[in-house]
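Problem: given the chain below (378 residues), write out its structure.
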Amino acid sequence: MQTQLVTSIQDIDPEAWNALTGENDPFVEHAFLLALEDSGSVGRGTGWLPHHVVVKDEGRLIAALPLYLKEHSYGEYVFDFGWANAAMRAGMRYYPKLVAMVPFTPATGRRFLFASDVDPQVAVSRLLDGALDALTQLRASSVHLHFLNDQEAQWVAADGRFQARLSSQFHWQNQGYNSFDDHLATFRSAIRKEVKKERRRVREAGIRVLLLEGPELNAQHWEALTRFYFDTCNKHGSGPYLSAEFFELIAKRHAQRVVAALAYENDEIIAGTLNFQKGAHLYGRYWGATRDYDSLHFELCYHRLIERAIERGQQRFEAGAQGIHKLRRGLLPVAIHNACYIADARLRAAVSEFLVREEASVRFELSELMHHGPAHRE
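Solution.
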């Protein structure tokens, strides 16, 4: 087996790459990563430089790790700004660093991609070998693995070289519901009534909501979704990570993974969400609206998508990072697994102490949030 770094996903055969990606993660597919590169959303000048680790056996691609050289810590949603500041005060260089995740995408999924006939633990260890070789070659300070799925976290722990890091999100899990009402039936009365009121407010406002899959979207739909993304970024005072061309490329190359929830007032699109699906998983990503509408955010970002997931028999819905308001809409707190390797022994020791305290805090928060979840009975 041979391990190497590839500085553009364009240099990897799409079919060979996609054969490794599994059944439920739309973001690690070749078309999505290529759209990020071709649109200029990652690459030179963005602080995200692709350095993907690939493993080949007699010329056949058998494993891969999407990996990026970072000159900052933005767009990751697992925060290490404090570590960077501490390193700077101690006279250590923290950037560049290496990050294994899909840029700007706080979604759990596949990080370690490998063929079905390859031993998973062997594949993970070889890919970590490649990441650590890249750390030395590129003179990076550290390697960070973000949003691992549960099984991957176990494989990384068994490898033994990386330190586990815990964070949290809110996810919806299908408990065998046959309808949205079945889902609401698990809520205690007061919260169930509030969700019903939220949905009724949207209907009574005369707002019509359509769910369309990517191939059904026309140029007007894509223009609105793109505009909503930039408007939301501007309203929050943050520069957009994605370029307009990214949305054009997704429409052309990756539309089969897209689900859009669009709200109409008369014939005008007034709000929308751009979401992605694959297999048993549905992921909410980008939201925007022309102005504030009572409860419409909850309808488009949570209720209507959960309802769709139930209708399609999908098992998981993730609605992105943060947002405690998700708890009262049926998305429950879950542990998110990450891992890191810090090259400098002094910083590694300090990070180790911090991670112990951070994990205790995250686990306590998860317990408290679950206690106050919608299904809790007083």
